[in-house]
């Protein structure tokens, strides 16, 4: 159903793995690097920074943009630093914590780069041109199903070229060659529940899901912007996420605590945000 919903071509393997997207931060360089251990990493938020931190342990990383003081968008492409000899180019399409999403990613300018993308929080929210990517991965718990399963969609020509030091559980080739693409015991319940949700999305249709995400997020942004600074979203409008909308209440902690308490009374929970920003 996932292959049908997302129109994934036959020359891509779809793996349901464990360890979260965080494990893929290490698995990706292990599987894609060879004697050339050069990588490009574009960091626009909390999760991209985690991917960068782990990649540095395996090879030589070019940081595409200078570290941002605050994650509220991205610098212009003209300011990017790109190693043309790098094995791949990694970026996070939608930064969950920071609410930063790419809507006009420079695919044409990067057509000679092997793109690797973390789509943990926006996979299945819009269509994907798979010809642009070598590998896409996503922790299912953000937009597909419950925690416990990680989806890896990898082009078949990239499988089987892993470094000799790659742990078996991270080795894509081991999973691809195993019965049912399961090298070790899968997280059965999480996969089953994700399957039910994907079945529901398939009935609804990806176009409708994309339309609803745009409509709902626009309504919320319009309201926030109309409060004259009472509620504040810090993200550059060109990069505002359709999926995760962070906001503050006048940068006043007591007001924010009251907001969270009042929201709970209305059945709105888990609004305090990620632990990295005080949630």
UniProtKB/TrEMBL annotation:
Alphabetic keyword roster: Amino-acid biosynthesis, Aminotransferase, Pyridoxal phosphate, Serine biosynthesis, Transferase
One Pfam family matching this protein: Aminotran_5
GO cellular component terms, semicolon-separated: cytoplasm
GO molecular-function terms, A-Z: O-phospho-L-serine:2-oxoglutarate aminotransferase activity; pyridoxal phosphate binding
This enzyme's EC code(s): 2.6.1.52
Enzyme class: transferase
Location of the Aminotransferase class V domain: 2-262
Catalytic activities: O-phospho-L-serine + 2-oxoglutarate = 3-phosphooxypyruvate + L-glutamate
Pathway: Amino-acid biosynthesis; L-serine biosynthesis; L-serine from 3-phospho-D-glycerate: step 2/3
A GO biological process held by the record: L-serine biosynthetic process
Signal peptide: none
Keyword Transferase set for record: yes
Cofactor(s) for this UniProt protein: pyridoxal 5'-phosphate
Classification via PANTHER family: PHOSPHOSERINE AMINOTRANSFERASE
UniProt family annotation: Belongs to the class-V pyridoxal-phosphate-dependent aminotransferase family. SerC subfamily.
Name of the molecule in the record: phosphoserine transaminase
Species annotation: Euplotes crassus
């Amino acid at each position: 159903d996932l292959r049908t919903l997302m129109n994934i071509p036959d020359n891509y393997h779809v793996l349901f793995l464990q360890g979260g997207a965080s494990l893929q931060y290490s698995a990706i360089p292990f599987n894609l690097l060879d004697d050339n251990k050069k990588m490009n990493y574009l960091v626009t938020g909390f999760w991209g920074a985690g991917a960068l931190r782990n990649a540095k342990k395996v090879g030589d990383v070019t940081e595409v943009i200078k570290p941002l003081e605050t994650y509220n968008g991205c610098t212009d492409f003209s300011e990017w630093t790109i190693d043309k000899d790098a094995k791949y180019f990694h970026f996070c399409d939608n930064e969950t914590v920071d609410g930063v999403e790419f809507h006009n990613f420079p695919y044409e300018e990067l057509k000679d780069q092997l793109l690797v993308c973390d789509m943990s929080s926006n996979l299945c929210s819009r269509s994907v041109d798979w010809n642009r990517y070598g590998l896409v991965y996503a922790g299912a718990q953000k937009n597909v199903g419950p925690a416990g399963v990680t989806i890896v969609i990898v082009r078949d020509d990239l499988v089987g070229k892993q470094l000799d030091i790659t742990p078996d559980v991270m080795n894509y080739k081991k999973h691809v060659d195993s019965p049912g693409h399961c090298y070790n015991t899968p997280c059965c319940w999480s996969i089953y529940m994700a399957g039910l949700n994907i079945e529901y999305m398939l009935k609804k249709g990806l176009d409708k899901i994309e339309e609803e995400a745009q409509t709902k997020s626009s309504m919320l942004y319009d309201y926030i912007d109309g409060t004259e600074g009472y509620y504040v979203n810090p993200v550059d409008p060109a990069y505002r996420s359709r999926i995760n909308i962070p906001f503050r209440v006048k940068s006043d902690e007591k007001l924010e605590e009251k907001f969270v308490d009042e929201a709970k009374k209305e059945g709105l929970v888990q609004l305090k945000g990620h632990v990295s920003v005080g949630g």
